[in-house]
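Hey, resending since the last one bounced:
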Amino acid sequence: MDDQIALLLGLLLTHFIADFYLQPMSWVLDRNSRHFKSTKLMLHTLTHAALTAVVVMLWECYFGLGEWLVVISATMVIMVTHWLIDVAKSYTRGGIVPFFIDQIAHIVVIITVCLYLNEHDPIMQWLTELTSSSDSYVVLLAYLLVLNPCSVAIRMLLERWQLPQSSSNSAFGALPQAGHSIGLLERTLMLTFILIDELAGVGFVLAAKSVFRFGDLTNAKEKHLTEYVMLGTLLSVVFTMAIGLLARFSLA
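The structure tokens again:
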């Protein structure tokens, strides 16, 4: 596997794992309330630093000269910039725009570090090689993106259409977090069908969901409940299709 691709994908994987799988909501709330004084933000930043150090160290052992200075410098850059970006985000009101700006800023830092560590290669040539190999890493990254990151993005996009309290409590004794879990499974199945080039399977997933939700929605007295579910489903489809097609393009 190409060394530049290995480093980039390794750092991207650690970023999404640390940001969306190893960061409890209590840490996010503590960061948003205490800002730069948050101890949870420091723990989150140290988590990123530890994972980054492991990836860069392994990359140096396999492809580099095993220089500790490279490991330390790359780790420090990502750790400090991550802390600064998250502190800046904590002063916003939240929402989808700050969320995307935050993630783009982190990814730009990661790409910059990769380019610096591979400065002997022309930038454009290095970028065109990103989609030429490393199929397993591309697939893993796609699945990571359609799970918690997509859930966060969809929730933020639906905030302006938040259901009234009466509607949210009338879900026939719905299971806690059931909607979230259904969304995760729905996107996982759709992504799998896209990656194996069985787009008809996406229609099957949507049809199956429609059959099971048809009774709930037709019995609902409030029209906005139906519209809310439709918006969430269509956003889920759009995100999954976009990520799946991008992954297919990368694997081609």
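The first helix runs from residue 3 to 20.

Sorry for the duplicate.
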